Amino acid sequence: MEYWNHIYEHFNPVAFSFFGLPVHWYGMMYVLALLAALYGAKWYVRRDRVPVDTLTLDNYFIWVEIGVILGARLGYILFYDPDTAYYLTHPWQIFNPFKNGEFVGIRGMSYHGAVIGFFIASALFSKRHHIHFGQLMDIVAVAVPIGYVFGRIGNFLNQELIGRVTDVPWGIYVGGALRHPSQLYEAVLEGIVVFAVIWLYRNHRRFRGELILLYGFAYGAMRFTAEFWRAPDPQLGFICCGWMTMGQLLSSLMMAAAVLLWPLFYAGAKKRRGR
């Protein structure tokens, strides 16, 4: 257990160098996350005989990747970054991987910003290719949690989004303090648990798009819970009541949106079936 407690002292977040540029385990995990989500979607479509062909899924995921990357980066700048004004007045710096002439990569991504970018990209793809938006969303609801496991493991390997100080025996030392490995808690809660909930419910779905609403509520609940073990963003701290983090606020809004939209979408589906 002692080796585990000090694992960051024995682990290099850089996997290897490619033409002098460092390749981080974090980046590799995110590539695995995207591939897991894509092939998870294809597996689900084949298994449950969803009427969407694999070529369409390939094209859709290209659109989604662009939307997610743009949304995640812009979301971080708007919600979390203390230099928001600088980036808004110097937009060409948003995706600049160099700092003071040194390659540092593109750091700072927001999950909730990624969600916004994802929905915009999905809506545009649905309209352009004449595919029911709800049908696309149900595929995503099943596939995304699978990829999310790898994403959170990537955060852990990159030694970021660290947990709160603790005295549990499985904690890990970060900067001399024993902390919760909260990224791994999130991998389980936001990835495995959310996937299990959606997978078990999918055969009880009453209308197209219901699974993405369930995902929004389930993810929001799991993220809200996991934030109690995750250290608040240092540039923000607790934003309300001495305990609420920005992640919990955004997750609460996510759950509220799912609850409000659920009866509206259900009523709309019933109305269309009654025609």
Catalogue the unreliable spans.
Answer: none
SSE arrangement, N to C:
HEEHHHEEHHEEHHH
Radius of gyration: 20 Å
Instruction: Report the biggest beta sheet as strand number plus sense, adding barrel if it closes.
Output: 2 strands, antiparallel
Structural class: mainly alpha
* Strand order, sheet with most strands: 1-2
Number of distinct helices: 9
Strand content: 5-15%
Provide the helix percentage: 55-70%
Task: Determine the N-to-C terminus distance.
Answer: 63 Å
Summary?
The chain is mostly helical and 275 residues long. It has helices at residues 2-5, 25-47, 54-79, 84-89, 111-129, 133-157, 182-201, 210-226, 246-273; strands at residues 14-18, 21-24, 98-99, 102-103, 172-174, 177-179.
Structure description:
- With 275 residues, the chain is mainly α.
- The protein contains nine helices and six strands, in the order αββαααββααββααα.
- The protein has helices at residues 2-5, 25-47, 54-79, 84-89, 111-129, 133-157, 182-201, 210-226, 246-273, and strands at residues 14-18, 21-24, 98-99, 102-103, 172-174, 177-179.
- The mean pLDDT is 88.
Key features?
275 residues; mainly alpha; two-stranded antiparallel sheet; two-stranded antiparallel ribbon; 7% strand
